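Progress against Task 2.4 (sequence-to-structure conversion) is shown through the following example record, which the project officer requested during the mid-term review.
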Amino acid sequence: MRRSAAKAPAAAPQTAAAGADFPRSAPAAAPTEAPAGPPAGPPVDNAPRQQMQTEFPFELPRGYVDESGTVHRDGVMRLSTARDELIPLRDVRVQENPAYLSVVLLGRVITRLGTLAMVHDGIVENMFASDLAFLQDFYRQINAEGHTRAAVECPHCSEPFEVELGGSRLGES
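Structure tokens generated for the chain above:
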């Protein structure tokens, strides 16, 4: 059932003969003291809410070449969920060859690639190795809050440097 808002009756226009003595708007009420006791309702949070970014654009170094010869380089990857990392573990291809995990996982989290209608693991397994390596690194970066490196200091010389914290394969970091 469709609901529509009730229309308020139109206010009669004021003319010189009717209502000329009345102001067109009511005067503001004088401020009164607030009643003692707890506030009438919960406090209103007027702070701007921060939106979490869940999709990240990327550009492949070489690009995926489809069966018609079209090169697709621009894409979007979304953040991974626990489900995205667990479901591929049931895949027979992953059970037979654990290196296939990254292909299946990337096929789940890449939401757009060029003008392709759909991205799946079959697309990912036919990418150039340099593009696959790029996507694996990109996956680690966006799912580890933007980076997989930590700043540390050498215990001997006190020289600062960075170390890689990510796992060796996707889904293992």
